[in-house]
Amino acid sequence: MDAFDSHQPHCSATPKVAVVPPWLPWLLRFSGTVCSLAWIAFVMPLGWMHWWHDSLGMGKMPQAAVVEYLARSTSALCGLYGVILLWISWQLERHIGLLRLITYSVGGLAVVGCLVMWNSGIPPWWLIGDAVANLIVATAVWVGTRSRSI
To answer: What is the value of pTM for the model shown?
Structure first.
């Protein structure tokens, strides 16, 4: 026996597998599907963006290259977030750490974004709805992935 053998941690032969409630993958699939709809805005004609902007009560959409860039980039990131949630939902036990990182970060960003953009002209129902929806998902992930294992 080597002098270092006695100091080696003993590993169990069977790795612990995280146990998640059956509703969590379905919540992630629902959220992922909703967020994936943002791909439509990413590729929609600019005229449609202007129509939606006005229809949502935000007035005439400014006509500047940076406005279109930011609208499309935000839509693409939201769509990507949706695809990631969908992908994780099918391999949840394997990617719990990544899921926590992403959902807690997005939840925090939504709350901070709501506070920072409160006076920006974005309708309050939009800001609050975004923050609340993201906080619901982040809280559900926290509740559903607390240290349970078999």
So the answer is: 0.79
